[in-house]
Each structure stands twice: as C-alpha cells, then as structure tokens.
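Duplicate of #3305? Posting structure anyway:
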C-alpha cells in the first residue's frame, strides 16, 4: 500500500478546524503519481477567522500590559521545545517531506536538521535582543534623552513555496515568533504536509493559541485574502516574481510592508586556473541539488574558453553518475520535480532551447529506467546565445545552460546580464580575482569556490528583480521588528518657546 500522509485540518487558534467550505486538495507523490492524502483548502472566510484570532492573541498580551519582553520570553522556550520535537521526529518528518515534494531523503533529513537549527538560532537571537533594548542615543541637546525600542510589527502573514516546504516556512516562522509577532503561515498547495505537522508540534509544546496559525490552500483563495487583509500588518513572501508582484500590489492598497524573496537565474563563473573535478562537482551541485528546484541555483555556467571542452567532459561524467531514483531509495541524489505542471514546464523550456538553436549536451528527457513519476534527467545545454529564453528565464528544474568567456570583464558582463540578482558563484584559485568579482557581481549572495551552502547566521536574499529584504541572520529578525523612538525632556527649566501667560 502507498505511504499516506496524516489527515489534518486547518490550524487556527491552537486547534484543528475544518475549512468552512470543507474543500480539500489532493496530495500527489511526484515519484509515483499516486494520491497519498489530501490537505484542507482554506478560503477568505477561514482567513478572516484566522486573522481575527491571531490579532486577539497578539493584542491580549499588549492589553495585559505584559509587554514585549514577556511575550518573547515564553516564545524562546517554545521555540527551543519545537526544535527538540523536530529533532526527535526528524526521520518521520523527512519521509513526509520526500513523499510530498520528491526531494531525496538524505536532503530532506538535512532540511529537518536545518529547521531545528533555525529555531534554536532565533531563540538565541531573541534572548540577545533584550540586552540591546533601550540603548541610549547620542543627541546634540543635553535637555533631551532618547532611546530606541525594537517591537514586534504585529500580525504577520507568511506565504511560502514548495521547494523546501518546511525549511522556507521556518525561515519566517522562527524569526517572526522570536520577534514577538503573531503569525499566519500559508504554505504552498503543492507541498504543505510538513507545515501541518509543525502545527501538531506547536500543540504538543503548548504554544499559546493564536500565536501561530497555519492555513493551507490555493494561492488565489487563501494567499490573496491574507495579502490584502487590513489587519495583517506585514507580508513576508517567498515565491515567484509573478506572485510577488500581485502581493506587492495588494499590500500597496493598505500601505502594508512586504519583504519578497523571489526567483533567480544565478551565474557560476569558472576560471581556467581551477581543479577540474572539484569545480565540476560544485557546478553540478549548484544546479542539480534539490532536483534543480533551487531559487539560487547557479544555472548559468560561464566557463573560460581555454578549459571549456575538458571541463564540460568532466561535468558530463559527474552528472551521468548522479543516482536518479525514487527519492526514498538509498543514495538517491535526484528525485522527481514537484508536479506534472512543473514537469511539462521544464520539458517545454528544453524544447524551446532546441528550437532556438541550442544543443542538448546531456539529459533533456525522462530517464529510461523510470516509467512513472515526474523525473527529468539533469540537463546541460550548450551553444546558447544571450537572447535565448534558456539564458534569460528561470527554469526551476535540473537544467544548466553554458556560455564561454575570454576575459574577466566579459565573464562579469555575462554574469550580470540578467534582471535577477539572487545568487552567484566564482571558482578560481586567484583569491584577489574572487574578491574583485564578489564586489562587481550584482547579487545578494556570492559563493567562492563552492555553490549553495546556506547558514541560518548569514543573510539570504536578492537584489534587482530577485526581491528585497533579507531572511536569516539578524536581518531575518529585523524583518519582523519595528523601531520606536522614545525621547524624554530631562531639564528642570521650562521649554521657553512661548511667552508665559500673565499671572491671574
Ligand atoms: P508561487 O509564486 O507560485 O507560490 C508561492 C506561494 O504563493 C504559494 O504558497 C502560493 O499558494 C502563493 N500564492 C500564489 N498566488 C498567490 C496570490 N495571488 N496571492 C497570495 N499568495 C499567492 O511560487 P512557487 O512555484 O511555490 O515557488 C517557486 C518560486 O519561488 C521560484 O520562482 C523560486 O525561485 C522562488 N523561490 C525563491 C526563494 C528565495 O529565497 N528567493 C526560495 C524558494 C523559492
């Protein structure tokens, strides 16, 4: 019998609640194409209830005058408990992630470790924040004293994608709660299963009702009403540019802040002074990890023309060695892409590249040994021009396109030839050159002699059309804090601007 996912409801106000219209969305295992359960489909009516409960929960603390410090203290405790629970259930959660989105099991286990690590990290950061409160400001007038308070923004809506279903959600949930906000999470309809399990963890650790609400559902039915809701004080979004633009428009109507983590078409520059095997492995990892569905995938290879032929030969050898299988199988390194829609979209990108005159050096098809599932072989495309769709647009699948360069200037020009600016990588033994490239490249992240490592201590986010705001690190916490100035008049003398009224 096929593995099934637990049957869950919406998580509102600390309880499981059926969606008002009782609609459900099937969960399909992308490796087998079988339905393995379903998730609730929230609509605007459910969003209304969740926002109401979430606001009540946030303002209850304020009304009781317990203040910001109190609010965050138990959150740190719950945050640590959540981290411990996830570590305890790591294998079970990883399996659910794998059958929901197709990620190789080893990667899903790694994600769960990162989830627990992220909760721990923000619990520490929240503790440190208390020490930074009320830091005095230096003013040019001695008659005034001023300090700054960092306070939670309020009720926040967190809208997330399917490629790292739980990890992307926790990159937002952990700092939002650590900052003292109350949150409503809307994960992707294509992979929500582990986010609903996070709700169960919140129940188990006794998180106060309403602090975190989790609504699954379609983007236009559940995400859109959340983005436009006047009582949601901020939207933090990770997803495509098209949706990011809709969310920004909705938020603009009520003048609500947003932070956007969007798509990318990131370059990897390989110079001629490199070790071919080490660089080939990082190039493969940079594009084909997570089944190629990485926002920061270094999916444009820019390689020095003097080594291009040998390098591509090595790269093809590495790529052909990648184990493609059911992602639960031991040693799997490439599973299926998330859905039938995504599978069709990727194959269309490949056929358009061919019709525009590019060459498929390897891959481009479903692996012969797999009859079911949304599998696409890791694909390398050469003879690419800068006007081709494959060079310009994000595929979000295991597809790497290649161009060669002669000079450093040419390499940089090619690297920056994109409206996106999320990730980038440079591979060279000349560290001064790497330093020059790091400064000149237009991206929020630069990897030197590697591609894709990610740490919750370091800021994550893009420039140009890849969005604004940063997840992770202290910047991730700042996303959910607002800054309040408190200024006191300390002189015993009257202010003395107006003439005092004559005594009666
Ligand atoms: P998507 O934009 O289709 O969906 C993302 C989320 O938005 C989902 O929860 C979806 O239900 C919701 N949504 C859809 N329409 C909406 C609307 N009108 N209003 C409100 N919410 C709506 O993106 P996706 O396909 O889930 O994810 C892939 C994209 O995410 C890629 O472009 C990828 O690069 C990007 N991504 C970026 C990062 C990053 O850190 N920058 C990380 C992961 C993924």
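Output from current build:
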């Amino acid at each position: 019998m096929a593995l099934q996912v637990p049957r869950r409801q919406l998580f509102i106000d600390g309880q499981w609640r059926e969606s008002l219209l009782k609609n459900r969305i099937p969960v399909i295992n992308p490796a087998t194409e079988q339905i393995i359960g379903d998730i609730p489909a929230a609509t605007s009516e459910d969003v209304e209830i969740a926002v109401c409960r979430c606001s009540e929960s946030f303002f209850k603390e304020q009304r009781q005058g317990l203040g910001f410090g109190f609010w965050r203290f138990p959150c740190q405790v719950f945050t640590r408990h959540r981290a411990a629970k996830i570590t305890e259930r790591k294998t079970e959660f990883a399996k659910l992630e794998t059958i929901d989105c197709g990620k190789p099991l080893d990667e899903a286990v790694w994600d769960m470790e990162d989830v627990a690590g992220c909760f721990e990290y923000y619990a520490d950061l929240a503790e440190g924040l208390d020490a930074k409160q009320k830091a005095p400001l230096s003013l040019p007038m001695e008659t005034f004293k001023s300090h700054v308070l960092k306070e939670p923004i309020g009720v926040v809506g967190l809208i997330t994608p399917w490629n790292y279903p739980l990890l992307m959600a926790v990159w937002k949930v952990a700092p939002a709660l650590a900052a003292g906000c109350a949150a409503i999470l809307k994960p992707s309809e294509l992979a929500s299963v582990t986010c609903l399990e996070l709700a169960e963890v919140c129940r188990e650790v006794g998180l106060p009702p309403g602090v975190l609400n989790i609504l699954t559902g379609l983007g236009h039915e559940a995400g859109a009403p959340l983005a436009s809701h006047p009582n949601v004080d901020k939207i933090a979004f990770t997803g495509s540019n098209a949706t990011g633009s809709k969310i920004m428009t909705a938020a603009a109507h009520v003048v609500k802040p947003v932070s956007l983590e969007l798509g990318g078409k990131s370059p990897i520059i390989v110079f001629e002074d490199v070790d071919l095997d080490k660089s080939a492995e990082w190039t493969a990892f940079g594009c084909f990890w997570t089944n190629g569905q990485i926002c920061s995938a270094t999916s444009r290879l820019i390689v020095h023309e003097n080594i291009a032929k040998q390098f591509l030969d090595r790269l093809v050898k590495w790529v052909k060695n990648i184990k493609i299988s059911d992602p639960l199988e031991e040693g799997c390194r490439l599973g299926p892409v998330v859905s039938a829609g995504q599978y069709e979209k990727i194959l269309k990108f490949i056929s358009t590249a061919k019709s525009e005159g590019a060459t498929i050096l390897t891959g481009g098809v479903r692996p012969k040994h797999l009859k079911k599932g949304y599998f696409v072989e890791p694909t390398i495309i050469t003879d690419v021009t800068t006007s081709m769709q494959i060079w310009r647009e994000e595929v979000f699948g295991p597809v790497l396109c290649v161009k060669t360069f002669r000079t450093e200037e040419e390499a940089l020009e090619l690297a920056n030839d994109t409206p996106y600016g999320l990730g980038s990588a440079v591979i060279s033994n000349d560290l001064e050159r790497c330093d020059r490239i790091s400064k000149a490249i237009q991206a929020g992240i630069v990897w030197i002699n590697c591609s894709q490592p990610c740490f919750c201590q370091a800021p994550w986010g893009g420039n140009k059309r890849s969005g604004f705001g940063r997840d992770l690190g202290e910047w991730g916490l700042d996303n959910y804090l607002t800054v309040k100035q408190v200024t006191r008049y300390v002189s015993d003398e009257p202010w003395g601007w107006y003439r005092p009224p004559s005594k009666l």
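Confirmed duplicate; merging threads. The chain has two domains: 10-262+466-487, 267-448. Residues 159-163, 168, 186-189, 219-220, 223-224, 227, 238-240, 243, 246-247, 261-264, 295, 394, 396, 422, 462, 467 surround nicotinamide-adenine-dinucleotide (CB under 6 Å).
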